[in-house]
Specification:
Elements: E1 8-10, E2 22-24, H1 34-38, H2 41-54, H3 71-80, E3 85-87, H4 98-102, H5 111-141, H6 146-170, H7 197-200, H8 208-225, H9 239-253, H10 260-275, H11 282-285, E4 301-305, H12 331-334, E5 336-338, H13 340-345, H14 372-378, H15 397-400, E6 405-409, H16 410-424, H17 426-437, H18 453-467, H19 475-481, H20 515-520
Antiparallel strand pairs: 1-2, 3-5, 4-6
Helix pairs in contact: 2-5, 2-6, 5-6, 6-8, 6-9, 8-9, 9-10, 9-16, 10-16, 16-17, 16-18, 17-18
Length: 545
């Protein structure tokens, strides 16, 4: 068995306990040599396009883990970890994200922990290969063409996204359930294009500040290289996306450097202005054909992953697990739903509440089914219909699963600006939050009654969770703001095994580094790993009748 490192890919076994062999993968899998790519603009273009394409791929093509479909699955995992995302089907075994929802088997020897490390470092390797290759072109040719500069900027942008996710996954945040003081302030491993295989195998966890320094350095390069770039695909980041990543990173980094909050607000405004984006309307939100599956149907989406019928399956796919109307996926069985207490807190005047089936059925819900009223009546209370099958096709997976998966939309920038501004001036933050909510509660009745920042932040993040339910955005916010969860209470609609209540942040949000890495990377002994949170939160048990 060879040592595992950032440049080694691990096949995820069907069984929970990992025992698969390790194999090395070359950047282009034998398809082309670096010299061939350097002399072929089309080959280089194909490699750049392959960066987002790889993010849709499973770990192994014969994987029996139906939650194994790359970045969209990661986004679903983070949402499963939140209070508000549950299932209400008769058999929770159909919920492929149930282990993360219930905090089951989160230790370093299980596939559930390995997903994060495996996928992100594979994707980082792709960007590192691209960066190194184009840098070699610059040396060989004495400069770069505008096209090559854009490709380099795209690679830096994607790498900054990966590290921003990783630093937030692996930074150990104090909580009431697990403790390991020696890892506080540490995060993921930094693997760059200049690193050798030997160095990668002895590369320890970087300090959180150092990872952010790399993120900001990558974004600075991307900002310069993408100036004037006009993208032809929503999967290719442009300058507005770079500014959006700046905003997200500075908001998080503000916890360590208070001056970063002003930069978060500044870049959030620049992201929206640069792209000329506008918020989703009620009609777009509830569109039974294009709702949350097609960037071209709105002016809100900033960045998304695309799919095609050529590489789509019926189960290893975002919409097979999120589009309730799809006949071919898991959703008719698992029935993704919202927690009833969370639903009850949403204003009845808020059109986002139509993302879930109200037990009172007082709203005329839209559906891609011909007889919408009859179909809606057949659904269980609180089930989500936010995500529609691609093209509204509920019967043919080759069409319905081809929807796009959002990675960034402009409403996130508005929430970032409001929270960041609220740090310095609470009333300014409240005014910005009201401006957001006036686009959602159309009668203008929204009022934020917070009199201190902590209460304001909790209300803002709640509204952000309503906005981005199912999109994989807000686990990082809850982890950052130390917001707990309450799924167990009298009258809950959560399955018994999902009824976890935490005081403050969940210990499961501190992701554990996979065993293959701690066994083989000499610089990360098990004592430098985040503690296993499995079993640290007791289930809430309903009182006996």
């Amino acid at each position: 068995m060879k040592k595992i490192a950032k440049y080694i890919l691990v096949a995820i076994a069907p069984a929970l306990l990992l025992s698969s062999c390790i194999k090395e993968t070359t950047p282009m899998n034998g398809a082309a040599t670096e010299s061939q790519v350097m002399n072929s603009p089309l080959a280089l273009q194909a490699l750049v396009a392959a960066i987002p394409t790889a993010m849709n791929l499973p770990a192994t093509y014969n994987s029996s883990m139906h939650c194994d479909f790359g970045y969209p699955a990661i986004r679903m995992i983070t949402d499963a970890m939140l209070e508000e995302k549950i299932v209400v089907g008769d058999n929770t075994g159909y919920d492929w994200f149930g282990a993360w929802a219930t905090g089951r088997s989160q230790g370093n020897s299980y596939a559930y922990a390995q997903y994060f490390w495996y996928f992100y470092y594979k994707w980082i390797k792709n960007t590192n290969d691209m960066i190194r290759m184009i840098n070699d072109m610059e040396v060989a040719n004495g400069g770069l063409t505008d096209e090559q500069k854009a490709y380099l900027g795209i690679a830096y942008t994607y790498r900054s996204l990966y590290y921003l996710d990783l630093v937030r996954f692996y930074e150990f945040k104090p909580n009431n359930y697990t403790s390991r003081p020696e890892v506080e302030g540490l995060s993921c491993v930094l693997a760059l294009e200049t690193e050798s295989m030997e160095a990668a195998r002895e590369n320890g966890r970087a300090k959180v500040e150092d990872v952010y320094a790399q993120i900001f350095a990558d974004l600075a390069k991307a900002e310069e290289l993408l100036a004037g770039y006009k993208r032809t695909s929503i999967a290719m980041p442009d300058l507005s996306v770079v500014y959006g990543l700046y905003a997200k990173a500075y908001l998080e980094y503000g916890e360590k450097d208070n001056s970063a909050f002003a930069k978060a607000a500044e870049y959030a405004r620049k992201a929206v202005a640069t792209g000329g984006y506008t918020p989703l309307t009620q009609t777009q939100w509830e569109d039974p054909t294009n709702g949350f599956n097609n960037h071209a149907s709105n002016n809100s989406w900033m960045w998304a992953l695309t799919t095609s019928s050529e590489n789509i399956g019926n189960l290893h796919n975002f919409f097979a697990h999120s589009a309730q109307e799809a006949e071919y996926g898991y959703t008719p069985l698992s029935m993704p739903a919202v927690l009833s207490s969370f639903f009850d807190r949403v204003s009845d005047a808020d059109f986002r509440k139509h993302s879930w089936i109200d037990p009172k059925r007082e709203y005329a819900y839209k559906s891609c089914y011909p007889n919408a009223e009859e179909y809606i009546a057949s659904l269980r209370d609180y089930v989500s219909i936010k995500f529609r099958p691609g093209g509204g096709d509920y019967s043919d997976y080759a069409v319905g699963n081809c929807g796009e998966v959002n990675m960034m939309r402009m409403e996130e920038m508005l929430f970032i600006e409001a929270e960041a501004e609220g740090r310095a001036n609470l009333e300014n933050g409240k005014a910005l939050l009201k401006a957001i909510m006036d686009k959602r509660i159309l009668d203008g009745s929204y009022v934020c009654a917070a009199t201190d920042f902590k209460t304001f932040q909790e209300e803002l993040i709640f509204q952000k969770r309503v906005e981005f339910w199912g999109e994989g955005v807000c686990m990082f916010d809850c982890k950052r703001a130390n917001i707990g969860m309450t799924r167990g209470y009298e009258g809950t609609n959560a399955p018994a095994t999902y009824c976890l209540n935490t005081e403050g942040r969940s210990p499961f949000w501190n992701i554990v580094i996979t065993r293959q890495e701690t066994n083989n990377n000499l610089a990360i002994p098990e004592t430098q790993n985040n503690p296993d949170p499995t079993g640290t939160v007791d289930l809430w048990i309903a009182p006996a009748e």
